[in-house]
Amino acid sequence: MREVLHWTEEMDLNQSPPAMAQRIHRRLREITGIDDPYLAAKTRQNCIAIELLPELRAEIQSSRSPLMTAARIAIAGNMIDMGVNGNVTEADVHQALQQALSEPFYGEQALFHQALAKARSILYLADNAGEIAFDRLLIEQIPPERVTLVVRGTPVINDATLVDARAVGLDEIVEVVDNGSDAPGTLLDDCSQEFRHRFADADLIIAKGQGNFESLNNQPGNLFFLFKVKCPMVANHIMQPVGTQVMAHSSVGALAMANWLYRQFDRYPPE
Fold this sequence. Notes:
Blueprint: H1 2-10, H2 17-32, H3 39-61, H4 66-76, H5 90-99, E1 105-107, H6 109-118, E2 122-125, H7 131-140, E3 147-151, H8 162-167, E4 175-178, H9 193-201, E5 204-208, H10 210-216, E6 223-228, H11 232-238, E7 245-249, H12 250-267
Parallel strand pairs: 1-7, 2-3, 2-5, 3-4, 5-6
Antiparallel strand pairs: 6-7
Helix pairs in contact: 3-4, 3-7, 4-7
């Protein structure tokens, strides 16, 4: 904690939160000597999610809109985030899924449908273990042959790696690659050159999780962010309350930031 407090003194406040989290968790792995401190938790989360897949597939198949039902379930899975809640339980997962179809939903559904119909190559940026099993349900609706799944290059918190993608069988239906980074988000300058090429060439990028939103919301391109709002800062940015399930295009994220800045200056006029 003392080290982190010293770091904040010199921290570049223009960086996204995942940049500081990356530094903290690198230090934690160094102190403990454990490459993947959250391994047991991730394994448990994957097992919980896998057991729910048959029931959730049936829910999707009986839905009037299978794609959007799968999207809501995938977004609901974003609550399996040990960077926000270190004690995620099986009951928490069940509750989030039960509420998935009735919780507040901020989504550009028509635009998402259009983007999927046009895209030949889709880069799907995964977020957490456990959640990645629910991502599979959405990928199955896209369909998978157009999708490349991206995971973290090195373990960090409970973010998904190649091990987790294989655990839920995603490597059997899509190409899976890692981004070469250990940040709990997507810091492009820290990612591998191969991943950056894929990012630049993709027709559509689906970015799961608040960490990916925090690190990519100012990035130009055809990006859709799918996540649950988990903190007041992001709630202010996207102008939606904490807990909202979000499906937002990158252009809307930029507009939300402009509106948010306007509100701040309106309240506290600059000199």
